[in-house]
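G., the chain you wanted modeled:
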Amino acid sequence: MNAFTTSLAAVAVTLLCVSGPIRAATPAATPAPAQAAAKAPAPAATKAPAVAAVPAARKIPGINAPDSYPRACVDCHVNKPPSDARLSTQLQQWTSGKVSPALLATVQGSAPAGLKLKGKHPDASDALDDIPVACADCHSEDSKKAPSLAGMVHRIHLVGGDKNRFMTEFQGECTSCHKFDAATGAWSVPSGPEKK
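Predicted structure as tokens:
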């Protein structure tokens, strides 16, 4: 039984307890008010069962709460001292062979079968004008030379629990990246140049 059905059942039980069982009306002599008061039992002090409160909707950025990252990747990966999280900064490190072992292990999990990642990214500075669409040129779903963008990005952002900043600071919120169009029901990931 779902929460809505459970709530309706609780309301029905409460109404039944308060009003008593439904009885068919029968013609009977109406007693005088004094007689009715004398014959009427004292009202019992009954407590109606508690009705479960329906929780408020969870606030979801871009759905029913403000979206602080409407441009997805490029609104989140910014230069915010003391950390420069821009993808251009990270790409410079990766092209010089400075890839953390933890990141390399995470990304290896989404690499095509038989591909062993070496920890050095080829130059891709031309992709910085259209993030993440240009990244998918190499990181496509059927690529044999690079991990797929979806698999790689989802593993980077969602694996690691409390050790993963996206999981702790952003609560793994899908709508930080994936945007919902309520008019059409379509989901998308915005793409564009990073902020300087």
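The beta strands are 79-80, 83-84, 179-181, 186-188.

Shout if anything looks off.
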